[in-house]
Design brief:
By secondary structure, the chain is α/β, with parallel strands linked by helices. 45% of the residues lie in helices and 14% in strands. The chain has 14 helices and nine strands. The protein has helices spanning 6-9, 23-32, 56-60, 76-89, 101-106, 109-119, 136-139, 141-149, 166-178, 197-208, 219-228, 233-247, 257-262, 269-277, and strands at residues 13-16, 37-41, 46-47, 65-69, 94-98, 124-130, 151-154, 185-189, 213-216. The strands form two sheets. It has a seven-stranded parallel beta sheet, with helices on both faces. Strands 7-9 form a two-stranded parallel ribbon. Helix 2 (23-32) links the parallel strand 1 (13-16) and strand 2. The longest helix is centred in the last third of the chain and has 15 residues, at 233-247. It is globular. The structure holds NADP nicotinamide-adenine-dinucleotide phosphate. NADP nicotinamide-adenine-dinucleotide phosphate is lined by residues 17-23, 41-44, 48-51, 69-72, 98, 100, 130, 132-133, 136.
Length: 284
C-alpha cells in the first residue's frame, strides 16, 4: 500500500516539458493534490532548455523531485545523464521518467539508453512506458490536421493499439512522484481497450457529426505525404517507422501500470472523444 511521502510534501516538484501534453497535466494534477509544480520548458515559468546548460541549475533549484520528458534528439541519453547529475547535486531525490512502451516492443536501444541514464543517476527513480496517446488526435498537428481535413492517411493498417489518455499518464506520474513504493520500478501504461486508428477516426467522426475517413497507406506513401507537407525526410521516415510498428500488431496488448499506480481503471478512448469534441478542435 502506498502512503503520501512526507519528504516530498514541502518541496516543489520540477516538471520538465511542463507545457506539453503530459507535463501540463502533471503540473495541474500536482496542484490539485496540494503540491507545488515548477513548470519548466523554453516557454515555461522556469526557463529550461535542453540545448542551453546555463538554464539547468536555475531551473532545478529548490526541487525535491522531478518529472522528466527527454530532449528526443540523437543525444537524448547523454543529455539526460548530464542533467540527472545536476539535479541530484541540487538535492533532487526522486526522478520520474516519461519513456515509451514502443521502445520495449521494438527493442529500441536509444530509448533504453535514456532510461539507463535515469536509473544510474543515484536518485530514486520510476520509469513510465505509455502506449500511443489519445491526445495525439487533438494536440499534435500530424494527426489533428488530417482529422480536420476529413481524410486521415496513415501506414497503420488494421494494427491494434491500446491508446492511453494523457490524463492517466499524468495521474500515474503524480502517484510515482508523491507516493512511496514506486522507486526502482518500471511501469508499462495503456488504455483499457485495443483499437485500430480507423476505429479512433470513426469515433471522432460520430462524436463530431463530420465525415472523416481513415485511409491506410504504405510507409513509403506516408513518407512522401509528410515530405510534401514540408517535413524533412529524416523525421518523415522516423514517424513512418513508429506508425508501421502499430500496423505490425506489436502494440496489441494491454498493460496494467495505470491500475497499479493509481488504483483505478484507465479512461476509455470514447471518454476522451466525448470530452474533446465539445472544444471545437476537430471542427476546422
Ligand atoms: N505522443 C505519443 O503518443 C507518445 C507515446 C509514448 C511516449 N511518448 C513520449 O512522450 C514524450 C513527449 O512528451 P509530451 O507528449 O508530454 O510532450 P510534448 O507535448 O511533445 O511537448 C514537448 C515539451 O517539451 C518542451 N520542449 C521542447 N523542446 C525543448 C527544449 N529544447 N528544451 C526544453 N524543453 C523543450 C516543450 O515546451 P517548450 O516548447 O516551451 O520548450 C513541451 O513542454 C517523448 O519522449 C515521447 O517519446 C509519446
Amino acid at each position: 500500500m502506498t502512503v503520501l511521502n512526507e519528504a516530498m510534501n514541502d518541496s516543489p516538484i520540477l516538471v520538465l516539458g511542463g507545457t506539453g501534453k503530459t507535463g501540463k497535466r502533471v503540473a495541474r494534477q500536482l496542484t490539485e493534490r496540494g503540491f507545488t509544480p515548477l513548470v519548466a520548458s523554453r516557454s515555461g515559468e522556469r526557463r529550461f532548455d535542453w540545448q542551453d546548460r546555463n538554464t539547468w541549475a536555475p531551473a532545478v533549484a529548490g526541487a525535491g523531485a522531478a518529472y522528466l520528458v527527454d530532449s528526443q534528439g540523437e543525444n537524448a541519453a547523454a543529455l539526460m545523464a548530464e542533467f540527472a547529475e545536476v539535479a541530484v547535486k541540487a538535492g533532487v531525490r526522486r526522478l520520474v521518467l516519461l519513456s515509451a512502451r514502443a521502445w520495449e516492443q521494438a527493442g529500441d536501444e536509444a530509448g533504453f539508453a535514456v532510461e539507463r541514464a535515469v536509473r544510474d543517476s543515484g536518485a530514486g527513480w520510476t520509469v513510465l512506458r505509455p502506449t500511443w496517446f489519445a491526445q495525439n488526435f487533438s494536440e499534435e498537428a500530424f494527426l489533428r490536421d488530417p482529422v480536420v481535413s476529413g481524410e486521415v492517411r496513415l501506414p497503420t493498417g488494421e494494427g491494434l493499439e491500446p491508446f492511453i489518455d494523457a490524463e492517466d499518464i499524468a495521474a500515474s506520474a503524480v502517484a510515482a512522484l508523491v507516493e512511496d513504493g514506486h522507486d526502482g520500478a518500471t511501469y508499462a501504461l495503456s488504455g483499457p481497450r485495443v483499437m485500430t486508428f480507423g476505429d479512433c477516426v470513426r469515433e471522432i467522426a460520430e462524436a463530431t457529426g463530420r465525415d472523416i475517413r481513415y485511409v491506410p497507406v504504405s510507409p513509403q506513401e506516408y513518407v512522401e505525404l509528410v515530405v510534401d507537407r514540408g517535413a524533412d525526410r529524416g523525421y518523415a521516415e522516423f514517424a513512418a517507422g513508429l506508425l508501421a510498428d502499430v500496423a505490425s500488431g506489436s502494440g496489441d496488448y494491454l498493460s496494467d501500470g495505470v491500475q497499479r499506480l493509481t488504483g483505478r481503471e484507465p479512461r476509455d478512448f470514447s471518454q476522451y472523444v466525448k470530452d474533446t469534441a465539445g472544444s471545437g478542435v476537430w471542427q476546422g
